[in-house]
Amino acid sequence: MEETSNAPHVLKSQANWDALYFYQKSDVIYQLAFAFCERFIHLYKDRTRDQVIQAARSCKQNIVEGLADGVASTEMQLKLLNVARASLKELREDFEDYIKSRHLQFFVSGEPRYADMLNYCRYHNRLSDYEPFFAQWTDEQMCNYAITLCHFIDRMMMSFLKKLEQEFITEGGIKERMHRARTGYRQQQDERLKQLEAELPRLKQSLAEAQAEAAKWKAAFENLKQRALKMYYSKEEEIKRLKELLGEEM
To answer: pLDDT value at position 4?
Structure first.
């Protein structure tokens, strides 16, 4: 384990997309777009309905797919997140076209409703913050909130993409990580081999010294054994002689 614990990793950590504000807002924009189409765009008479829903869905789903693919491929992650941005721009254009074609009004800077909308969209990210209004807002309100959310999502995604771009420049893609990981592993093995080869002569010397010491102790043991046996047999002979002598006297 020690040999590989510091080795470069091929796979990156999985991003928790549900914790990212731009993903949370993309979930809101999809549900808002769906509710908007259900209320204001005819199911059969206007093809914009499908385009709006699919563009909103494409934005959210490509964020998820891009972040999931980022575990292995930063390049694919960048591509898919940019596809999500393209879908988001298409969606924003559809909402803007709706306002223009129906002669509705864009909320503009300086109006109280614009400031309220901007602050709400800036600090609220979860679907639960918006869903209660889907059945209350007018089509004009829903379009303006959708456009504002699109701007926030796009800005956040651009910041995230720039961060990924910098990581890609400094760390490279999966091929570079695979090369570094494999090279790092080989270097560890080479270093370990050199370490073992350097230790081998010392170990051989220690083994020879241990063998010599063992031989010395073996010789001492044999000598002690022979002396003990000699003393044992001598005492045994003396005991036997004394028994014989005592037997004659009786």
So the answer is: 47
Within 13 Å of residue 193, how many CA atoms lie on the same side as its CB? Answer: 6
Residue with tokens 């003396």: 238
Distance CA 28, CA 18 (A): 12
Average of per-residue pLDDT values in the chain: 85
Q: At 133, list the tokens.
A: 């209004």
Number of CB atoms found within 10 A of residue 237's CB: 10
Distance of CA 166 to CAs 74, 144, 155, 178, Å?
11, 34, 17, 19
The alpha carbon torsion through 80, 83, 89, 94 (nearest 10 deg) reads -120
| Residue 238 structure tokens | 């003396």
pTM of the entire structure? 0.66
* Radius of gyration for the alpha carbons in the chain, expressed in angstroms and rounded: 42
Distance CA 65, CA 114 (A): 33
| For the chain, the helix, strand and coil percentages under 3-state DSSP, each to the nearest 5 | 80, 0, 20
* Residue predicted with more confidence, 88 or 7: 88
Which residue has better confidence, 11 or 195? 195
Q: Quote the tokens at residue 243.
A: 């028994």
Higher per-residue confidence, 121 vs 243: 121
User: pLDDT at position 174, please?
Assistant: 55
Which of 129, 181, 59 lies closest to 67, judged by CA? 59
CB 178 within 8 A of CB 9: no
Spatial CA neighbour of 57 closest among 71, 79, 37, 78: 37
Least confident stretch, 9-13, 71-75, 87-91, 189-193: 9-13
